[in-house]
Amino acid sequence: MIDAALRDGTASRHSMFELFARRLSGGRRFGVVAGTGRLLGLLREFRFDDAELKYLADHHVVSRETLTYLENYRFTGSITGYREGELYFPGSPILTVEGTFADAVILETLALSVLNHDSAVATAASRMSIAAGERPLAEMGARRAAERSAVAAARAAYIAGFGATSNLEAGRTWGIPTMGTAAHSWTLLHDTEEDAFRAQIAALGHDTTLLVDTYDIEKGVETAIRVAGPQLGGVRIDSGDLAIVAAEVRAQLDALGATGTKITVTSDLDEYAIAALAAYPVDSYGVGTSVVTGSGYPTAGMVYKLVARQDANGGWIAVAKKAQDKGSQGGLKTAFRRLDRGIAYEELVEIADGFERSATPADYPDARALQVPLVVRGEIDTAHEGPQGVAAAREHHLRVREELPVRALALSKSDPAIPTVFADAGA
Amino acid sequence: MIDAALRDGTASRHSMFELFARRLSGGRRFGVVAGTGRLLGLLREFRFDDAELKYLADHHVVSRETLTYLENYRFTGSITGYREGELYFPGSPILTVEGTFADAVILETLALSVLNHDSAVATAASRMSIAAGERPLAEMGARRAAERSAVAAARAAYIAGFGATSNLEAGRTWGIPTMGTAAHSWTLLHDTEEDAFRAQIAALGHDTTLLVDTYDIEKGVETAIRVAGPQLGGVRIDSGDLAIVAAEVRAQLDALGATGTKITVTSDLDEYAIAALAAYPVDSYGVGTSVVTGSGYPTAGMVYKLVARQDANGGWIAVAKKAQDKGSQGGLKTAFRRLDRGIAYEELVEIADGFERSATPADYPDARALQVPLVVRGEIDTAHEGPQGVAAAREHHLRVREELPVRALALSKSDPAIPTVFADAGA
Q: GO biological process: what's one of them (chains A, B) (predicted)?
């Protein structure tokens, strides 16, 4: 497309793309924006290197003119968007990317890849975090996601309310608290379960968590307390009917005097399983597969659409795809979340007449403005990047989640918690 | 674990880990191994750099002794496994990793991340490829997978029978044929649909594929043929009821004399949608979301378990986890696919008494041996890496898929196509 657009001159038309979701996957009641800080970091490095250009040239993918364009590529446009950690609803203008057509269209795959993945994980993670209530949640799913996605997933889960990750690379890159766990191979490595427990306590002290289900849970718990004493930090259970087993293990621990020893469970948990365990004596959850794969919805289904552009005379016109099932809404959008006594009741999206935003927060005193500048004429706002961006996103998420109406917290499939209302500024 | 194992001396115990799947996700009838070549490439670079070691030291994650171990880490063990592209069934010993406990356990997350993701994609892709029959399939899902996973997904889809990808990085890295497509933004960028089509033809010639559903499909097809003439290469439809629309568009194209113009469809296809379109005039499919996310099963659910190790006296013993729902089968395994007149009827897994394989292909003249050496005492077999590894894996997959019984080709949920039979060599 860039090749053909450079040829016919349309590549330089000033354009505005919008990244949004037509619907919320899986009948979710809200979505969580995640990946923004990661996207900005990737945008900072977004260049075409010699090996890449050589491949495009050798395989005649694009013309020489396009190769020169790519060689010099540097995003000099602007991006406005929802803060990372913010909630979103169908039609929320999550990102608005402005620049020449070529400069902005080339970011489509990158922006969608990052936000679709990270938001899918964050949305699932937020539901799990709501289901877990005050009990700590740890992300332990690295092995069930591709090796780099796993790091991004740990980051998204933390933003959406998880407290820690077993992914050390996520700890190093994004400043997320990390935790570890002993695997069954640790027990199997030793000649007896008791040897394994003794070695773990010698290395990590009595505050460690022993995995007690390699052979027989009841014997495992008995051995654990015999070896560690009643001051043992915790036991982990990774198989069986967790509700029943947790109750049995709690009773056994209490009978052995280990009333302070905590119970962690970890077997194929998702938000529904976590909710079902609320009434049972579980102290913390470790979640793997379901969080890193978006609990059944591994992509958020966001799209990136041209919504406005210059015409041949330099005028500014809104554009939209007309397909009934996959249409889009043209024009520059300004978004507000309207609140009644602090509780959200509407996602208001005002569509501007032309290139300039026509609505301001002052127009809606009951509303919170949702968009912030992320990139201004090529300058990336560093506040959203790196560990500080992650910390800010988590704080923002936990704060704005409090604005959700109670019905938004249920796990069953439903309509979005609040409606999205489009308002035409010209009307 | 490594920290504690270095402390109590068990880190150096010779160990054997097995990577396998307890079941096939989603009632699939077979699984497809993918990611092996990628794993070997990552293993070649698997080191701990200064920044990583500094993080582990600064955060007191491991002891000084362990830091030294990690600093010098280099895998010097051996890996035997199924060829990439091979089919697998529950309990198939997909990889067997031999080394000291520390050397082998440290690869757990990497091996599982790569194989779980890539095999999930390849398994879904193979089903789509079977459903598509002779019609070409292109992978176009980069925007619905995290940015690096997307490249791995394109690779896995190609191994499992897709013919091309829109992911240029996958083309560059893995030698996969690439293709491109015009988006709706291309049409919307231009003042009229006709302008967009003329510009595309000027850049790419008459053999290109025009996207005809931005405004009105019937008018789009009429404009496309008026502009390009009846020698137009193809049209793409990305919305609506594809079966009905394809039939209408075919009739319209034929009436306009464009009998050779092909129809590509691309809207939310999965293996079921592809199968349902078999009787309609569609020439090729572009698949996005469903293939890169494993069509509902984004991870293959493989695990990495210690199956044998030295004991304190240097003897060799099989070990296994006993949990009823998540048990494992100890011991070194040798795997064969038994064939009757070229059709598979059994996955035979022979369990050795000790450290040496006891079964050889000569023991089962009707069988194909499934395991090949991938790494021998630290030396990686380069035949499996890079583009040559991908080409070999694809060829292998398409060949061994012919061995499947007819019932394996149905898409509905079922038991595995062939049973896995464990045989005890000592029995």
A: NAD+ biosynthetic process via the salvage pathway
Q: Give the domain CATH number at A277.
A: 3.20.20.70
Distance from CA of A295 to the nearest CA of B (A): 10
* Selected residue of A321, A324, A325 to mutate for chain B interface (largest B Cβ count, 10 A): A321
Of the residues B58, B110, B189, the best mutation for testing chain A's interface (the one with the most A CB atoms within 10 Å of its CB) is B189
Judging contacts by C-beta atoms under 8 Å, the chain A residues touching residue B144 are: 112-113, 116, 299, 301
Q: Does B82 touch chain A (CB under 8 A)?
A: no
Length of chain B: 427
Could you list the residue range(s) of the whole structural domain that residue B28 is in? 2-122+297-424
Q: Which of A34-48, A300-314, B98-112, B348-362 has the lowest mean pLDDT?
A: B348-362
| Nearest-neighbour CA in chain B from A95: distance (Å) | 15
Number of structural domains chain A divides into:
2
Number of Cβ within a 10 Å radius of residue B245 = 21
Task: Identify whether residues A347 and A370 lie together within a single domain.
Answer: yes
User: Residue A170: CA atoms inside 13 Å, Cβ hemisphere, count?
Assistant: 30
The answer to whether the Cβ–Cβ distance between B171 and A8 falls below 8 Å is no
Compute the nearest-CA separation of B176 from chain A (Å).
12
Kindly state whether residues A302 and A287 are assigned to the same domain. Answer: no
Find out whether B179 and B161 touch, Cβ atoms under 8 Å. no
DSSP letter for B329, please.
Answer: -
**A424 Rama class: left (phi>0) / alpha (psi -120 to 50) / beta:** beta
Question: Do A251 and A331 share a domain, yes or no?
Answer: no
| Contact state of A199 with B4 under an 8 Å Cβ cutoff | yes
- Does some domain include residue B128? no
Last residue of a domain, one of A273, A292, A311: A292
Q: What tokens does A8 get?
A: 């016919």
List the alpha helices (DSSP H) in B190-341.
193-204, 217-228, 242-255, 271-276, 289-292
Of A421, A425, A417, which Cα lies nearest the Cα of A28?
A417
Q: Is B117 in CB contact (< 8 Å) with chain A?
A: yes
Phi, psi of B100 (to 5 degrees): -65, 160
Q: Residue B80 belongs to a domain with what CATH number? A: 3.20.140.10
Q: Are residues B329 and B417 in the same domain?
A: yes
The closest CB to that of A239, out of B184, B319, B325, belongs to B325
pLDDT tens string for chain A (427 positions)?
A: 999 999 999 999 999 999 999 999 999 999 999 999 999 999 999 999 999 999 999 999 999 999 999 999 999 999 999 999 999 999 999 999 999 999 999 999 999 999 999 999 999 999 999 999 999 999 999 999 999 999 999 999 999 999 999 999 999 999 999 999 899 999 999 999 999 999 999 999 999 999 999 999 999 999 999 999 999 999 999 999 999 999 999 999 999 999 999 999 999 999 999 999 999 999 999 999 999 999 999 999 999 999 999 988 888 899 987 766 676 789 999 999 999 999 999 999 999 877 778 778 778 888 999 999 999 999 999 999 999 999 999 999 999 999 999 999 999 999 999 999 999 875 4
Whether chain A has a CB inside 8 Å of the CB on B101: the answer is yes
Q: Does A14 touch chain B (CB under 8 A)?
A: no
In this predicted structure, what is the pLDDT of residue B324? 62
**Domain match, A149 and A233 both:** yes
CA distance B316 to B177: 48
Q: Find chain B residues with C-beta within 8 A of A108's C-beta.
A: 143, 183, 185
pLDDT digits (tens, 9 = 90+) for B154-174: 999 999 999 999 999 999 999
**A320–chain B Cβ distance below 8 A for any pair:** yes
Question: Rounded to a whole number, what is the distance in Å from the CA of B213 to chain A's nearest CA?
Answer: 7
Strands A420-424 and B367-369, sheet pairing:
unpaired
Residues 238-277 of A with CB under 8 A from B: 238-240, 267
Amino acid, single-letter form, for residue A130: I
Residues whose CB falls within 8 Å of the CB of residue A378, separated by 6 or more in sequence, listed in order:
A74, A75, A76, A77, A78
Comparing CB atoms, the residue among B171, B199, B326 nearest residue A4 is B199
Average per-residue pLDDT for chain B: 95
Closest Cα of chain B to A152: distance in Å? 8
